[in-house]
Structures are given as structure tokens and as C-alpha cells.
Design brief:
With about 150 residues, this protein is mostly helical. It has 5 helices and no strands.
Length: about 150
């Protein structure tokens, strides 16, 4: 088997697992008494995160993605999601916090990992918002968008 075939077969297996994870996450959100539109938004955001971003270069399961949020919201999402803007960055940050709370309750990630994720989001969210604004500003040279 070649590398591409391995990638495809592992991605397919993870997508099947992710379907069950998304259904369980949606049920968990419903038990929290969130509105139908809020549940739908969180599920859609997490679907994109686990089935697009985490499978983009090398297949990763959702539990492995708890440490990927900084790159996702600070760079990848801004470049790859046509709908990336301040609102969608904030919405995805909220969804990721809820999703990893759910994952911690199920024992798939540690409470410490979730605490660190939330600290990263709290510290970095203003920078991510400014980055997406620069990215969307046609007067800003793309080389000046990411100030690392």
C-alpha cells in the first residue's frame, strides 16, 4: 500500500468515527438546553474542524486536535474558509471550547488539556481577530497579514 492509500483509508475510518462523535456532541449540546440554531452552529463548526482541518495533511482524531487550535484559528481557518471573519473566528472558538469540554467529560482528553486550550483561546483570540481583519483588507499585503 502506498502513502496516499494509507492516508485515504485512515481518513475514511476517522470520518466514520467522527460521525458518531458529532451525533454524541449534538446530543450533549441538546441536553445543555441550547437553542436549535446554536446546536446546529456548534456542530457545523466542529464538523469542519474534525473532518476538514484535522484530516487535511495527516489524519488525526478529534482527541489529537486539542493542541491544534492555535494553528487552526490563527492561520489555517483564515486562509482556507472563505467565510472566515471576526464573527466566525469567535464562533469557532466557542464551539471548540464546548467540544473539548464534551471530549473531557467522555474521558478522551484531559481536563488539563481543555484548560490549556481555553487559556490559548483567551490569550490569542484578539490576535486572531486582528489577523482575519488584515487578511480581509485588500489594502494589506498578504506578506504583512501574519506577524509572527
Amino acid at each position: 500500500m502506498n502513502r496516499h492509500t494509507d492516508y485515504e483509508s485512515e481518513s475514511q475510518a476517522i470520518r466514520a468515527e467522527n460521525t458518531e462523535v458529532l451525533e454524541a456532541f449534538e446530543s450533549w449540546l441538546n441536553r445543555k438546553k441550547l437553542s436549535e440554531s446554536t446546536v446546529k452552529k456548534h456542530r457545523g463548526n466542529i464538523d469542519f474542524y474534525i473532518n476538514e482541518f484535522l484530516l487535511y495533511e495527516e489524519p488525526k482524531r478529534p482527541a489529537e486536535g486539542v493542541d491544534e487550535v492555535r494553528f487552526f484559528l490563527g492561520h489555517w481557518f483564515i486562509r482556507k474558509a472563505m467565510w472566515a471573519n471576526e464573527t466566525s473566528i469567535r464562533s469557532n472558538a466557542a464551539s471548540l471550547k464546548k467540544f473539548y469540554d464534551f471530549m473531557a467529560e467522555r474521558g478522551h482528553v484531559t481536563p488539563v488539556a481543555v484548560k490549556e486550550l481555553k487559556e490559548v483561546i483567551k490569550e490569542q483570540l484578539p490576535d486572531w481577530v486582528e489577523t482575519v481583519k488584515r487578511y480581509d483588507d485588500p489594502s494589506v499585503d498578504l506578506e504583512d497579514v501574519w506577524r509572527w
